[in-house]
Amino acid sequence: MNSANNPYGGNPYGATYGQASGQGNTSVTYNTSAETAAPAEAEDSAGALSSLAGFGSSDSAAGLIKDTTTAGFAADVISESRNQPVLVDFWAPWCGPCRQLTPLIESAVNAAQGTVKLVKMNIDDHPVIAGQLGIQSIPAVIAFVNGQPVDGFMGALPESKIKEFIDKVAKSAGAKSGPQAAIEEALAAAQEMQEHGEPDQAAQIYAAVLQNAPDNVTALAGLAECLFDLGELEKAREVLAQVPDKQKDDAKIRAVEARLALADQVAHLGNPAELQARLAANPDDHQARFDLAMIANALDKREEAADGLLAIMKADRTWNDDGARKQLLQFFEAWGFKDPATLNGRRKLSSLLFS
Predict the structure, then answer these.
(1) How many Å apart are CA 195 and CA 191, to the nearest integer?
(2) What is the pLDDT of residue 266?
(3) Would you say residue 24 has pLDDT above 80?
(4) Is 98 in the active site?
(5) How far apart are CA 307 and CA 289, in angstroms?
(6) Residue 32 has what pLDDT?
(7) Are the C-beta atoms of residues 158 and 181 closer than 8 Å to each other?
(8) CA separation, residue 75 to residues 63, 132, 217, 247, 295 (Å)
(9) What are phi and psi of 351, to 5 degrees?
(10) Phi, psi (deg, nearest 5) at residue 149
(11) Integer angstrom CA distances of residue 123 from 127, 138, 224, 301, 308
């Protein structure tokens, strides 16, 4: 899915650090000056979702590699390193080894596919940060993780050694990093918003994820579910239409499809008061009881809906070709395996069938 066919658009709603054990010719020792901490004071609180920007580009360098300035260092390096490790390449135009290192480190960073980012700083134009970090020779590469410099090397290295350095930094960072980590964090945030009854906010996050990962089945199912909860049933169907064939059997997708199917059924049901009157006059009017169960489910009265269908089964298991049991199983699929109504309903169903 892209911005052209996404029914929700792009966003539809509107100290001393110690000596590094680097792989290069010279390890980097960081300055203990109080000025070293200055960039961290400008740190912002950008979350993982904002770090998704640029990763959807067909030009990987656009999202993984950039130049920075003294003013931009806090955002580009300090803050961004809280999302994934950031390598800072300190260089100058007159430096021959810098020109050798640049294409190699850019290639290695692109090959790492978001495990790290690369930020380049021309020390002729922007000497302050290099001075604060005690850099005395270039090229110098320093890795930042969680706002702190953690490792580095000086001098031009072969690409194989640069790759080893990147792998080491990524491993030392601990938790998963890069665009996939940002996507997973965003999905978790969206799910939490859904659970707190904020489908509109959750939908915005799911739509943002789909701009970068259009085949993400969790985001597709989540967006469709939010649209359903907002009463946008046709848009929910449009989102489900974007699901790749190999993912159509995913449990999350099937759950939303089941909810849409139930909504279609309810649209053709009668007036609840009239159905209640029919049932009061004739307790064996199983069709009236069935329709009331469907309406109860549409009103999110899940226990009531399940009990209505179980009552039909208890009275006449063969009614409508075992239709009450079949419909109850469809409810379970729509509600989800872990839903309390599903768990309780399954216990009652088992008791009825096997008692």
Answers:
(1) 6
(2) 73
(3) no
(4) yes
(5) 10
(6) 29
(7) no
(8) 14, 17, 32, 38, 53
(9) -60, -40
(10) -70, 130
(11) 4, 9, 49, 66, 75
The burial of 164, by beta-carbon neighbours within 10 Å (0-12 exposed, 13-18 middle, 19 or more buried), is given as: middle
8 Å CB contact between 292 and 275? yes
Q: What pLDDT does residue 179 have?
A: 64
Identify the residue whose tokens are 């939908």. Answer: 203
* 3-state SS, one letter per residue, for the chain: CCCCCCCCCCCCCCCCCCECCCCCCECCECCCCHHHHHHHHCCCCCCCHHHHCCCCCCCHHHHHEEECCCCCHHHHHHHHHHCCCEEEEEECCCCHHHHHHHHHHHHHHHHCCCCCEEEEEECCCCCHHHHHCCCCCCCEEEEEECCEEEEEEECCCCHHHHHHHHHHHHHHCCCCCCHHHHHHHHHHHHHHHHHCCCHHHHHHHHHHHHHHCCCCHHHHHHHHHHHHHCCCHHHHHHHHHCCCHHHCCCHHHHHHHHHHHHHHHHCCCCCHHHHHHHHHHCCCCHHHHHHHHHHHHHCCCHHHHHHHHHHHHHHCCCCCCCHHHHHHHHHHHHHCCCCHHHHHHHHHHHHHHHC
| Sheet bearing 86-91, strands edge to edge | 65-67, 117-122, 86-91, 140-145, 148-154
Closest CA to 230 of 200, 267, 258: 200
| CA distance linking residue 328 with residue 233, whole number of Å | 22
Rg value, the chain, Cα = 29
Strand partners, 29: 19
- The pTM of the whole model exceeds 0.90: no
pLDDT exceeds cutoff 90 at 284? yes
Structure-token match 């967006």, residue found: 223
Q: Rounded to whole angstroms, how far apart are CA atoms 62 and 233? A: 37
Phi-psi region of 59 (alpha: psi -120 to 50; beta: other; left: phi over 0): beta
pLDDT of 35 strictly over 80: no
Q: Choose the catalytic residue: 64, 65, 77, 98.
A: 98
Catalytic residue (choose from 95, 105, 293, 305): 95
Please tell me the distance from the alpha carbon of residue 347 to that of residue 158, in angstroms, as a whole number: 64
Structure tokens at 68: 């920075």
Q: Letter for the amino acid at 331?
A: F
